[in-house]
Amino acid sequence: MQPGDIVVVRPGVYKEVIQAVNGIKYLARGKVFIDEQLMPLTRQFPSLKIVFEHITTKDAVDFVRAHGDNVAATITPQHLLLNRNAMLVGGIHPHNYCLPVLKRETHRLALVDAATSGNAKFFLGTDSAPHRKGAKESACGCAGIYSANIAMELYATAFDRANALDSLEGFASHFGADFYGLPRNTGTITLERRENIVPDSIPFGNETLIPFFAGKTLHWKLL
Length: 223
Fold this sequence. Notes:
Blueprint: E1 7-11, H1 13-21, H2 29-44, E2 49-53, H3 58-66, E3 71-75, H4 77-81, H5 85-88, H6 105-116, E4 122-124, H7 133-136, H8 151-161, H9 168-180, E5 191-192, E6 196-197, E7 202-204, E8 207-209, E9 217-218, E10 221-222
Parallel strand pairs: 1-2, 2-3, 3-4
Antiparallel strand pairs: 5-10, 6-9, 7-8
């Protein structure tokens, strides 16, 4: 499996289901996934290209940084912008529920540092997941945040807050293509600093979905 241009893409979330059955504490599962799945894989195939999808913890950041340029990771906008309080404080907020779940502030800050560092091993991956409103607002709601409608504005917000807008282009447009050995897109987009109110809901077939940051005001807009 190792030779050639094969890339192994490993989201940590599927392992959480197995670990739930085995009684591993929920917020410890990301570290267990690294120790039990990724570390053995990198030892067995040290040159294999691996993408750790939508990382959420400082442990994951440290794992990627500790390995060579053949190991990379994607980061979602929600994990850059929010910590677990946004899902739990003041009642359950189902539209901020995703897998992997939002983590503590220390983990969010580690993700922001990685994303804005200019390190080409970290790049954009929205993990945008649309679910109808009723499937989220239920006794057993679906995991997933829909961010595709404002993804670039969300990333711009996160990078702006970190005073790192000059690092956004590489993270969003260059590093992923370079890692996969693909040509960089020659097209361009324009983001303007202006008020941008996120819609409260979006039509979704015969129903509606609630987008990430619904009803809130961003200060970046994709033209």
